[in-house]
Design a protein that fits this description.
The longest helix has 24 residues. With about 180 residues, the chain is an all-alpha fold.
Length: about 180
Amino acid sequence: MSRLAIPTVDNAVEASKPLLAAVQKQLGIVPNLMKLVGNSPAALEGYLSLNGALAKGSLSVQLRERIALTIAEYNACDYCLSAHDYLGRNVAKISAGEIDAARAARSEDARTEAALQFALRVAQSRGRVNDVELATLRAAGFDDAAIIEIVANVAVNVLTNYINNVALTDIDFPAVHAKAA
């Protein structure tokens, strides 16, 4: 059971209701994470704005979902693993094997793996990556804009991982659990 209140959409803070309605329109559902974050309209607006902006960036939905899986596994966030496993399979159309590989920052595609390894290093080092790690990512074909987007995707996923780990958010997707907490 969640340690923080997850209101229904009808019982949400008034300022969050239009934001949650937009989520409903886009996804067809309002996941528990959104209702939970909606306890703070400012936090919900900030999360949705950053997430929406990153969706317009240069990274594909497949790579963004893989980054989300890598970071969720690293932070042992079962809610985010469950959500991104579902989204990866059903929205991004990523194979089961590639979803499992992404949880370990791996991929059959060398360019994708370079991005996932870099994303993991950003999380592990709290952004203090070295010149070799940056050079490796650039050699895989990522420019400075893409590097910034990878870091921003790590950050938005760390945000949701931390919120869900604090709250122990009730999982409303098919449950997936971290391999090692």
